[in-house]
Amino acid sequence: MSDKVLYENPLNTRYASREMQENFGDAKRFTLWRKLWIALAEAEMELGLPITQAQIDELKKHVSDIDYDKAEEYEKQVRHDVMAHVKTYGDAAPSAKGIIHLGATSCFVDCNSELMIMRDGLDIILRKLVNVMEKLKTFALKYKSVPTLGFTHLQPAQLTTVGKRATLWLQDLLLDYENLNDLLSHVRLRGVKGTTGTQASFLELFDGDAEKVKELERRVVKKLGYSRVYGVTGQTYPRKFDYNVLCVLSQIAQSAYKFSNDIRILQNMKEVEEPFEKSQIGSSAMAYKRNPMRSERMGSLCRYMLSLPINSAVTASTQWFERTLDDSANRRIVNAQAFLTVDAILNVYMNVAENLVVYERVIEKHLKQELPFMATENIMMECVKAGGDRQELHERIRVLSMEAGKQVKQEGKDNHLIELIKADPLFSAVRERLDSILDARKFIGRAPEQTEEFIASEIDPLLNAHKDLLGEKGDVRV
Q1: Rounded CA gap, 72 and 87, in Å?
Q2: Residue 431: pLDDT band with limits 50, 70, 90
Q3: Less CB within 10 Å around the terminal CB: N or C of the chain?
Q4: Which residues have CB under 8 Å from 4's CB, separation 6+?
């Protein structure tokens, strides 16, 4: 049970998945350190250094049984986390104590493990992202032909459809997916570079044999499941990579933020609503309320994520020469929290996207309030076709529209513009066809076709490529 006296990060206690928490947890990180030391020792043995298979076997035997209490005690003594774990590992595998971390600097384990952890974190984000996209696709196709008011400047504008609007959310995520894929294609390890990146210590170990040093790096990286390394480094991998990662995570948050705001506005209009559970309470005071807490949580988490890339930008900008340690404490917080935050955002996004409720009658009611104004040009054109004077018709529609607008805005009544037009002799030629002219489906352009075409050409190929990742549901923990 947690200690309620101490502060606990809400990302862990309330929002992020256990999977992402474990990805950045100590057990994974320090186990990776031991795997890195094993890979290094094994490659060094293969290339002729005096390391025995028995030593390697003992290291492998103790790869996971980490004595964290002992490591903490050592760190209090030496004030160095890597050396504390070297000593702890040496105590567990005494025959190999003298060859652990041979020739390496702390960043051999710290940087390489961080890159591997972030790569795994990006894979989790990718999986959740494509699941959100799959749920939005289903929603978009279901409502592709349902007319709804479009909004520009948050004012009623030309009609669109409920499904077509969802493709705008999908389009944002598609761009994020492309940026994430590009980032994944550039992930590489720091490799085996030594203290300032020159590989001098390894050159010394192999008596000046540069080819063996290069082969050492190739073998170590291969044993860890990678093939690419940074060609040159200082003591660390370039901190610009952290910034690139956080920028991609920020872009996903930007898309989710936009979606969450749209849903909150639509819920205010009672057109579309996020899921609301049977026993859920919207307000401690106002029992009738159905607050969009999921979308509000998304927005809140997104806002935090948007603030993080500037932190990494400053870190990358202030690395002195081959490295400076003022990045360390900062990165322990920022990198992990960025991943946990976006993980939490996507969990909620999946939940909302899969369970959106659409109130078509409310949407239709809102349409009827605004459509008469939008249809006036069509009405006027039909009258001109029947022999009417365009300028005279325009002026009359202007006058009637002002009268109807006054009734709506000043008197709070329904829009009666169509009744006014029907009663006006100037529009007698179209009086019997007004209902047909006012069919909302005639004002949505190619929205249904655009929805189908976009999904078929850009979303379906993506989802088919990741069909083994689909089927996940969003978890809202509290």
Answers
A1: 11
A2: confident
A3: N
A4: none
User: 433: pLDDT confidence band, cut at 50, 70 and 90?
Assistant: confident
The answer to whether residues 129 and 77 touch, using CB atoms and an 8 Å cutoff, is: no
Cα–Cα dist 157/151, whole Å? 5
Q: Name the amino acid, one letter, at 88.
A: T
State pLDDT tens for residues 97-130.
999 999 999 999 999 999 999 999 999 999 999 9
Q: Could you give the count of Cα atoms lying within 13 Å of 255 in the half-sphere of its Cβ?
A: 25
- Residue 182: CB atoms within 10 A of its CB come to 11
The pLDDT of residue 454 is 98
CB 380 within 8 A of CB 394: yes
Catalytic residue from among 153, 186, 284, 457 = 153
- Determine the 3-state secondary structure of 470 from DSSP: coil
Residues in the chain: 478
Tally of CB atoms within 10 A around 253: 28
CA angle 281, 283, 284 (to 5 degrees): 95
Give catalytic status of residue 153 as yes or no: yes
Residue type, 437: I
Q: Which of 476, 473, 465, 477 minimizes the C-alpha distance to 131?
A: 473
Given the residues 64, 227, 283, 317, the one annotated as active site? 283
Percent of the chain with pLDDT over 70: 97
* Max mean pLDDT range (273-287, 342-356, 368-382, 424-438): 342-356
Q: What's the CA gap between 434 and 315, in Å, rounded?
A: 65
Cα 342 from Cα 367, distance rounded (Å): 36
Q: Concatenated DSSP letters for 90-149? A: HHHSGGGGGGTTTT--HHHHHHHHHHHHHHHHHHHHHHHHHHHHHHHHHHHHHTTT-EEE
Q: Which of 119, 58, 112 is nearest to 89 (CA)?
A: 58
Cβ-Cβ contacts under 8 Å for 212 (sequence gap 6 or more): 47, 48, 206
Statement: residue 306 has pLDDT above 80: yes
Q: Residue 287: is its pLDDT beyond 50? A: no
Which residues on adjacent β-strands are paired with residue 358?
272
Is residue 426 within 8 A of residue 392, CB to CB? The reply is yes
Rounded-to-integer distance, Cα 214 and Cα 240, Å:
25
In this predicted structure, the answer to whether residue 283 has a pLDDT above a threshold of 70 is: no
From residue 321, how far is each of 233, 317, 324 by CA, in Å?
11, 11, 8
Which secondary structure element, helix H or strand E, spans residue 191, and what is its range? none
pLDDT surpassing 50 at residue 92? yes
Query: Per-residue pLDDT averaged across 365-386, rounded?
Result: 88
